[in-house]
Design brief:
This protein has 110 residues and is mainly β. The protein is built from 1 helix and 10 strands, in the order H-E-E-E-E-E-E-E-E-E-E.
Length: 110
């Protein structure tokens, strides 16, 4: 519904079905790990999906941040963050512990 009402991406693949990119990416961030500011919109990616697997009490840092504003993704275990793949975002350096997440993309055409 969000896509239909706001983003209006054409999420049909050549087979006329929603294009889910495979494989799902399993990410492990250890102390000092980060992901620089980037966009996910290569390879016809339209929507990015991230699932937090680690309890936020088990690590420090490692926030998914959407500059220039103050918005950061929810860090509670099991939280899901969904956003247009052309949105700039980053993962801040992990200071302590280990952070795990799953990331995948819905593909289509504009």
């Amino acid at each position: 519904k969000t896509n239909k009402d706001y983003w209006k991406f054409n999420l049909l693949s050549s087979e006329k079905q929603i294009g889910i990119e495979r494989p799902i990416q399993y990410c492990i961030y250890k102390k000092g790990s980060f992901f620089k500011l980037h966009r996910d919109n290569q390879y016809d990616r339209m929507i990015s999906i991230s699932v937090q697997l680690t309890d936020s009490k088990e690590y420090k840092g490692g926030q998914v941040h959407f500059p220039p504003g103050p918005f950061t993704a929810n860090q509670e275990r099991g939280s899901v963050t969904i956003f247009p793949s052309d949105t700039k975002h980053q993962v801040t350096p992990l200071v302590e512990g280990v952070r795990e997440s799953l990331v995948w993309w819905v593909c289509g055409n504009k």
